[in-house]
Amino acid sequence: MKVGVRAKLFLFVLLACAAVVVVQAIAMRLVMERGFLGYLNQQSRTRMEEIVPRMEQADATRGTWGFLRSDLREWMNLVLPFLPETGGDAASRVVAPDQAGALARVGLLDAQMHRVVGNLDVNADSIRVPIMVGGRVVGWVAAVPFEAVLPKNDKCFLEHQFTALTLVGLGSLLVAALLTFVLARTLLRRVREMARATQQVAAGDYASRIAVGANDELGALARDFNRMAQTLKHTERARRGFMADISHELRTPLAVLRVQLEAIQDGIRSPTAQSTNTMHLCRSIA
């Protein structure tokens, strides 16, 4: 099946637009998944780094993490961040906001990566910040990655965002297809006009011309075609003039020869050596 130039141009531009839309959709998904969730995990790490100094002080004082297993209140006092201006004892202090939900995902690991207290899912693969005492690691403040505990509603929200981005991409692709169709049709209309004019010139109609239109490559091609047609017209005119001159020059000796022959046939003149020489001369010229 023969595929026309318009179809090829349409498919080429459409595929290019589709590739752009697909790449954009993938990039947006990666940004949402890695960028946003990465930001939340970084917020968790920042919270954990705020906890580490209190953990280091507690280990330096107690020398072991065993006291936290039996005293969850002490664990909460170490973990919960308090607004600095509240001061006072733990009962009167105000807990600072935890918008990323980091503290609910925090737990404590000992130096051997065993869970001590806190979130039940913390392990060696969690986000970890070391607790250093005397130049050695005595434990880890760990947090479950945000994507592992992402609430169902939040997951639905992200999926809705991805769906919306997909629909926007499909809409953009549809608009691109319409614009590509109009562009291909406009360009091919000018090409068809050039093809028609070329056929007319090939048939001998040297007066055929193409509208130049826009000042682009097709416009330059139209100007070159018009100059070529004008040159061919002048050449044809010169050829016809040359042929007319030759016909006139040939017509005079032939007329003399015919008059001589008719005069001899009518008996007006007798064939003589002079008349014979004249006819031979006219014949040689013709």
UniProtKB/TrEMBL annotation:
Keywords carried by this UniProt record: ATP-binding, Cell membrane, Kinase, Membrane, Nucleotide-binding, Phosphoprotein, Transferase, Transmembrane, Transmembrane helix, Two-component regulatory system
Main location: membrane
CC per GO annotation: membrane
Enzyme Commission identifier(s): 2.7.13.3
Membrane topology term: Multi-pass membrane protein
InterPro entries found in the cross-reference section: 2C_sensor_his_kinase, HAMP_dom, HisK_dim/P_dom, HisK_dim/P_sf
Transmembrane segments annotated in the record for this chain: 162-184
Domain HAMP: 185-237
Protein name: histidine kinase
Annotated source species: Variovorax beijingensis
